[in-house]
Design goal:
single chain; 724 residues; 3 domains; Rossmann fold; 4-stranded mixed sheet; alpha/beta; 50% helix; elongated; 6-stranded parallel sheet
């Protein structure tokens, strides 16, 4: 994160027009996708699409040659461009040869990528974007804010103002009237154009065919009216066959706009040809006489060679990942992106424009994994973002602040304990009677602008549980309690509840005293070195007593122990085996309770309404959804489901420290959904989420309580034992 990016974020959050337009767009696309996906097997279709893209990228060199041969046979001219300048030079040369003065363009992200319009304008050529959204951002002098909807960040008032300037007359706010005005202006541009430039959604190698998907007729007009058609296509758009193209089309529109199919799907094979009586093809009689197809590399082949990042080439540019992204929903793509937007955009940017352009957009990803759930190619965007950050640190090192925090403190448990102890003393002037910190002095004041913070415990959990440092001998299952930093240093009372409740469940819980931070803060900022060191410390601490289970109250910690430690230590034979051994024993609190007490009877109603917040790492990282609800219902609690229960609360580890205002924006949407339920208590299974939700509701002076499920269950079981 740079100070420049933080300023851009805060500017976007303060933009009233943006904050008016974005919520409407996010809601419309969410509902549209839900409707569009009804009656289809999304999982099966995306497995098929994934196979198509894997095969296509694996066979890319052969597909390029096959496409060139077939497209050339059909009368097209095919050129392979190594980079942006190569594309610009080819098109400018072609334009000069044909005395091109005016160009019309249909929507094309690859031409945005190479900044083609700027180079054409510098050469004295007039360029008109004909996609309505692209035309709007062209008039505004801006970059597109979305892969599919370039102008989704604009309000109707802003659009009317732009069109009024073009026409010289005051236009009203009637969308239909504004569309008619644009149509009238663009119609003349089509008729005057000497060249049409398009992209392509798919390129079919076996026939040399371009597939262009649009919802406006502009794509058809751009590719048929001017005498020359130039298609600029990234290598990754190549597929083998029409069947493969159909597999993509089955999900492309559904996943983006909720349509079964877009309004227009054009298949273009060679230039427009008319066969005379003599059966000799005549080109250009009823359409473009020339078709030039430029296949663009610009870093794609390098990406294809990377086992860590080639998955990004499976992207079909549907934009569904943006529509579900909580960060995008607060700042849109002109902030969350360089040219390509969102998390996938950050990865593409690293290869297409350089790591220096990608580092800031990559810092905005919260790793909530919502994008992976809706991606039709099942691309693991968060995993690649983590790897991108690691790669940046490997090449450039950590900032001084992070080096001190991670190498100097976090990776040394005793120093961490000392730092927390000092912090607990220094905080005294800012701690309220209820142990909440509601205001911090500069430069920490931004941390308490949108949430109140819990005071650091004077007596952390590790000290409260010193007498439980090993399991007592007996027949009950031994459960190692891995608490995590926030439970240890901020909410030790929740740790006490975990211990008591597990004892009621017939377990023998204990607290390994040498445990320390799981390493997640270091991992998400690219410091794998610190993370590996912490992994080894924790594995050694936990394995010493050979527990039957390892229980966590933070899903992020569980993911580290269960998934990341084996990955990080995979190249060390000894540590790899030790990491795998503990990973199989890790359980979330609710998961373990249900396993220990499968036959417990349902309790009488508690006369309390609760709503449940699904933590990102529990829902998507560990795949746990029904268990926590089942446990609450078994204990007699009525659950009122909130809207978007599994949407991120905005905490996201170090994200809340780096972008507190953005975190607060995301949190506000969650709090609105909580309050709309009328629940007495919001329950979650993640300590960091407890901190975020509690802090946000406190700022609102809300009476709604926030409780970890262990805390809630323990409070209602103080005087009774569970039937095991």
């Amino acid at each position: 994160m740079t100070a420049k990016m933080r300023r851009r974020v805060n500017k976007a959050l303060a933009d009233k027009n943006l904050q008016t337009a974005l919520p409407t767009f996010m809601l419309i696309t969410k509902v549209a996708r839900q409707i569009g996906m009804q009656g289809i097997d999304f999982s099966t279709l995306r497995d098929e699409l994934r196979r198509v893209k894997e095969k296509s990228i694996a066979n890319l060199p052969q597909l390029v040659q096959q496409f060139k041969a077939q497209a050339t046979k059909a009368g097209a001219v095919v050129y392979e461009a190594k980079d942006a300048q190569d594309v610009d030079n080819y098109i400018l040369k072609l334009a000069r040869e044909h005395n091109v003065k005016q160009i019309v363009k249909s929507k094309s992200m690859v031409t945005e990528e190479i900044e083609l319009n700027k180079h054409l304008k510098d050469a004295g050529i007039e360029v008109t974007e004909t996609d309505l959204g692209e035309y709007i951002v062209q008039l505004a002098g801006e970059k597109p804010s979305h892969l599919v909807g370039p102008a989704i960040h604009k309000t109707i008032e802003q659009i009317a103002e732009l069109f009024s300037k073009v026409t010289g007359e005051e236009l009203g706010l009637d969308p239909q009237k504004l569309a008619e005005v644009a149509r009238h202006i663009l119609r003349q541009a089509y008729l005057n154009a000497d060249m049409g430039i398009s992209g392509a959604n798919i390129a079919i190698a076996e026939t040399g065919t371009l597939v262009i998907v649009t919802n406006e007729a502009n794509g058809c007009l751009v590719t048929t009216l001017p005498p020359i058609h130039v298609a600029v296509v990234g290598y990754e758009k190549l597929v083998s066959s029409l069947d493969d193209a159909t597999t993509i089309l089955k999900l492309l529109s559904r996943n983006t706009t909720g349509q079964r199919q877009s309004v227009y799907v054009s298949y273009i094979t060679g230039p427009s040809a008319t066969t005379a009586i003599s059966e000799v093809p005549l080109f250009g009689v009823q359409g473009p006489g020339e078709l030039h197809i430029i296949l663009v590399d610009n870093g794609r082949m390098q990406m294809r060679e990377s086992d860590e990042f080639k998955e990004a080439l499976y992207c079909i540019k549907c934009g569904a990942c943006l529509n579900i992204c909580p960060v995008f929903g607060s700042v849109a793509g002109q902030t969350y992106g360089y040219i390509y937007q969102g998390g996938i955009g950050a990865i593409l940017t690293a290869f297409l424009h350089g790591m220096d352009k990608a580092v800031d957009p990559a810092s905005l990803c919260m790793n909530c994994m919502a994008c992976t759930e809706v991606c039709p190619s099942h691309i693991d965007i968060p995993r690649m973002i983590l790897r991108l950050r690691t790669k940046f640190v490997e090449e450039n090192g950590l900032s001084l602040t992070r080096k001190i925090a991670y190498h100097g403190i976090l990776s040394h448990p005793k120093r961490l304990n000392t730092a927390i102890s000092i912090g607990s003393r220094l905080q005294s002037p800012f701690v309220g009677k209820d142990s909440m910190v509601r205001r911090l002095p500069y430069p920490l004041n931004s941390l308490t602008r949108t949430i109140s913070l819990p005071a650091l415990a004077h007596h952390p959990l590790r000290y409260r549980l010193q007498s439980f440092s090993s399991p007592r001998a007996g027949t009950h299952p031994a459960v190692a309690f891995y608490a995590g930093c926030i439970a240890d240093y901020a909410y030790p009372e929740i740790g006490d509840d975990v211990m008591k409740y597990l004892q009621e469940c017939g377990a023998e819980p204990y607290y390994p005293q040498e445990q320390t931070c799981c390493g997640a803060p270091a991992l998400v900022t690219g410091d794998e070195e610190t993370c590996i060191k912490l992994a080894q410390i924790n594995i050694a601490a936990i394995e010493e007593m050979n527990p039957d289970y390892i229980v966590t109250v933070c899903p992020g910690c569980a993911v580290m122990l269960q998934q990341e430690y084996p990955r990080l230590l995979a190249n060390d034979p000894e540590w790899s085996l030790r990491a795998e051994a503990i990973s199989t024993k890790v359980k979330d609190f609710s998961q373990l309770v249900l396993e220990l007490t499968p036959s417990a009877q349902k309790m009488l109603s508690q006369n309390l309404k609760v709503t449940y917040h699904d933590p990102c790492y529990l829902r998507r990282g560990l795949g746990i959804y029904h268990g926590p609800r089942q446990l609450l219902q078994r204990e007699g609690f009525e659950i009122v489901e909130m809207n978007d229960a599994d949407a991120c609360c905005g905490f996201a580890g170090t994200f809340v420290l780096e972008y507190p205002e953005l975190s607060g924006s995301i949190l506000n949407r969650k709090l609105n959904n909580i309050e709309a339920t009328g629940a007495d208590i919001v329950v979650t299974n993640c300590i960091p989420c407890v901190l975020q939700l509690r802090g946000g509701l406190d700022k609102r002076n809300s009476n709604i309580k926030v409780m970890h499920s262990a805390e809630l269950l323990a409070s209602y079981h103080k005087s009774r034992h569970i039937n095991t």
